[in-house]
Amino acid sequence: LAQTRNRRFIHTGPHSQPAYPGHVPLTAFQNAFLAVGSALMALADPRRGDMVAALGETTAGSTLTRLRDIMLDSPEGRRILKERPRINSKTLNMDKLRELPDGTFGRAYIGWLDGCRVTPDSREPVHYISDPELAYVMQRYRETHDFYHALFSLRVSALPELALKAFEFTNLGFPMTAFALGAAVRLKPAQRERLWKEYVPWAMRCGSHGRCLLTVYWEERWAQDLKELQMELGVWNPP
């Protein structure tokens, strides 16, 4: 039995040992069972962040290895993997971000947090990925997701979130981000039409053209002009 804080006991076999704090080892069968169950729960209620997180981890497969290798090929990405920075209210100086000039990435990010009434502490920790380095890659993606919202000025609501998921699928390749587009059935007809006719084509072009966003050391870009940052990364705002 493996136990994590505030989680149920999960049978993982007599020889399984956690590879890092919070890790829950799974057999192949358990991983598949959790993937199917979390997919059904996430589709039924997209607000279940824990189920969305579990789906992302259990379906990531070789995507994490590919992203880790892309990071290793990038000077910034290598430093991220070496230093393993974390994004939360303890590591960010929120007051300092609010003092940055308008038009900077840091000011856009703090403005997005304030406007959406969210905090950088809302992301689930990784539990089901066995390799500690690959688990960090997933954690990094999870914790920098809100930076992508700020980068493209996309608020937290169904249509912008699905547009961003489409971008992430093209730019990063996580299967979960493609699966998330199934939630489009919940949109109003006009929103659904806009998603497929405007946002998805933007996501396909922008995501494939732009630099892999996991290779960006965002914490060093706070004072950079937002438009300049977009140009450097080869991305642009959605329609």
Automatic annotation (TrEMBL):
It comes from the Eukaryota. This is Coenzyme Q biosynthesis Coq4. It comes from Leucogyrophana mollusca.
